[in-house]
């Protein structure tokens, strides 16, 4: 079981809202809306994805990484490496 499993419904609801925002962005472009308004909505969708990713990262650290660290060994090193790489990807985006 993954750390986010208990909160899966909330993640799915949030992603559905973001999906709606993305469809709205496409509609705005189709309708030739003002570019600043489109950029504002892109910023909102981006913030939504960032919030989801930070919550998932938090769950990963609390569940997967903490469990691996308590067991020790190579798996612990691998989980820490994965988390570090995920953080680096988030920081770059």
TrEMBL record:
<dbReference type="GO" id="GO:0005737">
    <property type="term" value="C:cytoplasm"/>
</dbReference>
<comment type="similarity">
    <text>Belongs to the CsoR family.</text>
</comment>
<dbReference type="InterPro" id="IPR003735">
    <property type="entry name" value="Metal_Tscrpt_repr"/>
</dbReference>
<dbReference type="Pfam" id="PF02583">
    <property type="entry name" value="Trns_repr_metal"/>
</dbReference>
<keyword id="KW-0678">Repressor</keyword>
<dbReference type="GO" id="GO:0032993">
    <property type="term" value="C:protein-DNA complex"/>
</dbReference>
<keyword id="KW-0238">DNA-binding</keyword>
<keyword id="KW-0805">Transcription regulation</keyword>
<keyword id="KW-0479">Metal-binding</keyword>
<dbReference type="InterPro" id="IPR038390">
    <property type="entry name" value="Metal_Tscrpt_repr_sf"/>
</dbReference>
<protein>
    <submittedName>
        <fullName>Copper-sensing transcriptional repressor RicR</fullName>
    </submittedName>
</protein>
<keyword id="KW-0963">Cytoplasm</keyword>
<dbReference type="GO" id="GO:0000976">
    <property type="term" value="F:transcription cis-regulatory region binding"/>
</dbReference>
<keyword id="KW-0804">Transcription</keyword>
<keyword id="KW-0186">Copper</keyword>
<dbReference type="GO" id="GO:0046872">
    <property type="term" value="F:metal ion binding"/>
</dbReference>
<dbReference type="GO" id="GO:0001217">
    <property type="term" value="F:DNA-binding transcription repressor activity"/>
</dbReference>
């Amino acid at each position: 079981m993954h750390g986010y499993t208990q909160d899966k419904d909330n993640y799915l609801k949030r992603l559905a809202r973001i999906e709606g925002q993305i469809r709205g962005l496409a509609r705005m472009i189709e309708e030739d809306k003002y570019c600043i308004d489109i950029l504002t909505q892109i910023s909102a969708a981006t913030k939504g994805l960032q919030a989801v990713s930070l919550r998932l990262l938090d769950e990963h650290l609390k569940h997967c990484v903490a469990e691996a660290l308590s067991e020790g060994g190579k798996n612990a090193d691998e989980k820490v490496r994965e988390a570090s790489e995920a953080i680096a990807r988030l920081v770059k985006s």
